[in-house]
């Protein structure tokens, strides 16, 4: 198993690359600038001892370099354009959309697209032949990049293709977190909207912590 992370030079992409590589999963960082992607990969590899290698490629080369799993981690402003640039390469792969459509200039608010969510927008753009799975929307980039700390949340996974969701859940569990099937792609509207709430809480002076996540807690816990 290997994974491409498009937008892997950003904070969340870097953190995921480190976490997956440390778990033994080879990672290919994809960026519009392949040289920049390789430079970031070199920086990240320097933080790891004997983990899987992280490499860097231009966007299209990163997609073709992996067997199945492609994570989209770009800012929402680049969401549709990035998908348009690689859509012909995605049949036979699973697109894992972790993008949250935050309001321009105010990350404490969500600004959902006409499709209802970023996950649904990706599915509409790519068509039914490419399964889109929404996941990892609510994980703090800061937490991901602090490898000495465990990830302090569960992951909600949604999409219209059950087999694809099950594969993504298996992948996410390599990060030592629990992942749950949260239903069809339409439920991404709720899941993506949690992120600006967490951001608001995490920057509030009245809340005595930062970088909080969410957990699904059983009774009595």
What do you see in this structure?
- Helix 4 (about 80-85) runs parallel beside helix 5.
- The chain is globular and about 45 Å long.
- It is about 35% helix and about 20% strand.
- It has an eight-stranded mixed sheet, with helices on both faces.
- About 45% of the residues are buried.
- The protein has helices spanning about 10-20, 35-45, 60-65, 80-85, 120-125, 140-145, 160-170, 190-205; strands at about 5, 25-30, 55-60, 70, 95, 100-105, 105-110, 130-135, 155-160, 180.
- The mean pLDDT is about 95.
- It is of the alpha/beta class.
- The protein has eight helices and ten strands.
- Strand 1, helix 1 (about 10-20) and strand 2 form a beta-alpha-beta unit.
Which descriptors apply to this entry?
alpha/beta; globular; eight-stranded mixed beta sheet; two-stranded antiparallel ribbon; 221 residues
H/I helix tally: 8
Taking the alpha carbons of the first and last residues, their distance comes to 34 Å
In spatial order, strands of the major sheet run 3-2-1-4-5-8-9-10
Order of helices and strands: EHEHEHEHEEEHEHEHEH
Shape designation = globular
Helix content: 25-40%
Radius of gyration based on Cα positions: 16 Å
Low-confidence stretches: none
- Residue-averaged pLDDT: 93
Overall structural class, as computed from helix and strand content, comes to alpha/beta
The count of strands amounts to 10
Topology:
Blueprint: E1 3-6, H1 11-22, E2 27-31, H2 34-45, E3 54-58, H3 59-64, E4 69-72, H4 79-86, E5 94-97, E6 102-103, E7 106-110, H5 118-126, E8 132-134, H6 141-145, E9 155-159, H7 162-172, E10 179-181, H8 188-203
Parallel strand pairs: 1-2, 1-4, 2-3, 4-5, 5-8, 9-10
Antiparallel strand pairs: 6-7, 8-9
Helix pairs in contact: 4-5
């Amino acid at each position: 198993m290997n994974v491409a992370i498009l937008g892997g030079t950003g904070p969340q992409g870097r953190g995921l690359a480190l976490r997956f590589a440390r778990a033994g999963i080879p990672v290919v960082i994809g960026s519009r600038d392949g040289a920049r992607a390789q430079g970031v990969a070199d920086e990240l590899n320097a933080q790891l001892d004997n983990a899987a290698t992280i490499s860097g490629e231009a966007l299209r080369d990163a997609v073709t370099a992996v067997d199945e799993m492609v994570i989209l981690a770009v800012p929402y402003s680049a969401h549709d354009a990035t998908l348009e640039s690689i859509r012909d390469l995605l049949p036979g792969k699973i697109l894992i959309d972790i993008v949250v459509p935050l309001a321009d200039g105010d990350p404490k608010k969500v600004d959902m697209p006409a499709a209802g969510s970023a996950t649904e927008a990706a599915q509409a753009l790519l068509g039914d032949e490419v399964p889109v799975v929404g996941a990892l929307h609510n994980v703090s980039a800061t937490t991901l990049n602090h490898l000495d700390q465990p990830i302090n949340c569960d992951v909600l996974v949604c999409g219209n293709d059950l087999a694809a969701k099950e594969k993504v859940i298996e992948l996410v569990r390599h990060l030592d977190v629990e992942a749950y099937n949260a239903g069809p792609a339409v439920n991404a509207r709720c899941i993506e909207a949690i992120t600006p709430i967490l951001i608001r809480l995490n920057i509030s002076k009245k809340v005595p912590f930062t970088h909080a996540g969410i957990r699904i807690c059983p009774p009595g816990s």
